[in-house]
Amino acid sequence: MEFVDVDIGKNYEKQEVLRDVKFKVEENEFLVVVGPTGCGKTTIGNILSGLEKPTSGHVRMRGEEIEPTVHNISYVFQEPSCIPWYTLIDDVMMGLVIKGEEHQKAVQRAHEVIKLVDLQGFEQYYPRQISGGMKQRVAIARAYATDPDLLIMDEPFGHLDAQTRYLMQIEIMRIWQQEKKTVVFITNNIEEAVYLASRIIVLSKLPASIKGEYIIDLPRPRELTDPEFLRIRAEITDQVEAID
Amino acid sequence: MSPNTTESIKSVFYNLFSLFIVVILWTIFSWWQNSPFFPSPGEIWKAFIGLLTHGDIEGISLGTHIFWSLVRIFAGFAAACILGIPLGLIMGLWPRLYNRTRAVIEPVRFIPPIAWIPMAIVLLVGFSRYAFLIWLGAFFPIFINTLLSVARVSPIHVNVAKVFGAPRWYIIRKIVIPSVMPDIATGMRVGLGIAWMCIVAAEMIGGEMIGIGRLILKYAELIRMGEIIVGMLVIGVIGFIMNEIFIVIERHIFRWRSEISID
C-alpha cells in the first residue's frame, strides 16, 4: 500500500484548477512539486493537508482518506503564520498541545526543535520582535514539533530575500537529514527544487496536471554550480516554460 | 535621555501650554463680554471651590455627585459588556444569525438614547432608568466592534490550528478570542465614552437629585453659568481620565502588538 496516494481534481465555481493530479508520496522522501506561478500549487497543499476538499478524487494516507483530526500532518504556509499573541515557545508547542501531549513533554520537545532551527534564546519573544526569516523558522519548528507523518511546505521561503532564502534552503536540508520526514515541498523556484528534492514532479499551467517526474540522486550537500546540477535544472526549466 | 522620553515631556509641555492659551482667550473673551452668562475662569474656579466645600444649593457636595454618576455609568457599562461581547462573538461566529436579524438590530442602533427617554420614564423606575439609558449608549459600540472583529480574524491563524486537528472550541478560545480582544477593548473604550456622555440625559429622568448631570440641570434652572460650566468641565475631565486609563491598560494587556522589533 502506498504511503500517500494523491488523485485529485479541483474546480472553483467554473474555473478548473487541478485536472487529474495523480502522484504518490513515498515514506521519508523529499518530494518537490514545481510549477509556474498561479498554477494551483497552493490548492494542492491545502487539499493534501485536508484543509480543502477536492472536487473529485481522493488523498489517502496508508489507504485512509486524509483528515487532520486523524492523521498527523504539519503544514508550513506560504504567508507568515506565527500567532501574534503567542510567544515563540507557545507557538512551537501549539500542535503538541492540540494533540494532547503532556505539558512537560511538550516543553521538552519544543526546546528540541527550537534548537534544531537555531532559535535558542528567543523562546519568550513575540513575532513582532523577530525578523521574517526567524518567523519562518518558527513555522518550521512548529511543523516539526509534532513529529508529523506528512510535512507539507508551500513556498515557505517565497517571502524572504534571496540571501535569507539561500540560508534557509541549507537549513531545511540540514534539518531534514537530522530528522527524516516525509516532505512535500511546493515551489516555483527550480533551483530550490533541484537543491532540495529527492524527487521532483512538474506541473503544467492552469488547469494543473502532472507534466513530468525527475528522480534527483545527486549527492548532498548539492553544489549549485555542479554541471550535472545545472543540466537537470535547465531540463526542468525547459519543461516548466514549454508551451503545452 | 531616549528620544521617546524627550517626546513625551515635550507633549506634556505643549498640552499644558494649549490649556494655558485657552484660559487666556477665555479670560479676554469674558472680560470683553462682561456678562453674567459668560463667567471668567476666576469665577468658574470660585464656583468649583464652592461646590467642593459647601456643596450645591441642597448641600450635596461635588464629590457625592461625581461618585453617584460613576456608579450609574459603571452599572450601565457593565450590562453593555455582559450582553454586547458574547452577543457580538456569537453573531460573528455564526454570521447567518446576524444576517437574518439585522433588520431588527440595525435600526435600533440609530435611535439616539435621548429619544428613548419617554419610553424609559413610562416603563422603568429608579436606578433601572439610569442604567438603561447608559446601557443604550455603550452597548452598540461594544457589540458592533466585537461582531466586525470576528469577521477579520486571519484565516491563516485559524488554518494553523485546523491542520493540527484542533476542535472548534480550541479555535474559538485560542485563536478567535485573543485575536478579537484588542477590538473588544477599543469597543469598550468608545462605549465607556459614549455611556459617560449619556449621563446628563440619564439623570434628567432618574428622579434623584444627585449626580453630575443633575447638578448641571439644577443650576440651569437658576441660570448660574459658573456652576454649570464646572459640571461640564467635570464631565469632560473625568471622561478624559477614564479614556487615558483605558489606553494604558490596553497597552499593557496587548503587549504582543507593540511595535518593537529587532529586524
Describe the structure.
The complex is a heterodimer of chains A (244) and B (263). Chain A has helices spanning 41-48, 88-98, 103-116, 132-145, 162-178, 190-196, 227-241, and strands spanning 4-12, 15-25, 30-34, 56-61, 64-65, 73-76, 150-154, 183-187, 199-203, 210-215. With 244 residues, chain A is of the alpha/beta class. Chain A has two domains: 1-71 and 151-244, 3-Layer(aba) Sandwich (Rossmann fold); 82-148, no CATH class. Chain A is globular. Chain B has helices at residues 3-33, 41-53, 62-93, 95-99, 102-109, 117-123, 127-151, 155-163, 168-197, 199-205, 212-221, 225-253. In chain B, helix 3 packs antiparallel against helix 9 and helix 8 (155-163) packs antiparallel against helix 9. Chain B is globular. The model of chain B has no long low-confidence stretch (mean pLDDT 91).
Average pLDDT reading of chain A? 90
How far apart the termini of chain B lie comes to 23 Å
Elements of chain B, N to C (H/E): HHHHHHHHHHHH
Q: Greatest interface and its residue counts?
A: A-B, 31 and 25 residues
Strand order of the largest sheet of chain A: 6-7-8-3-9-10
Number of DSSP-assigned strands of chain B: 0
What distance separates the N and C termini of chain A? 33 Å
The oligomeric state is heterodimer
Strand content of chain A: 15-25%
Number of domains of chain A: 2
SS class of chain A: alpha/beta
Low-confidence segments of chain B: none
The whole-angstrom Rg of chain A is 18 Å
- Per the CATH scheme, the topology name of chain B is MetI-like fold
- With helices defined by DSSP (H or I, 4 residues minimum), what is the helix count of chain A? 7
Identify the CATH homologous superfamily of chain B: MetI-like
Q: What is the helical fraction of chain B, as a range of percent?
A: over 70%
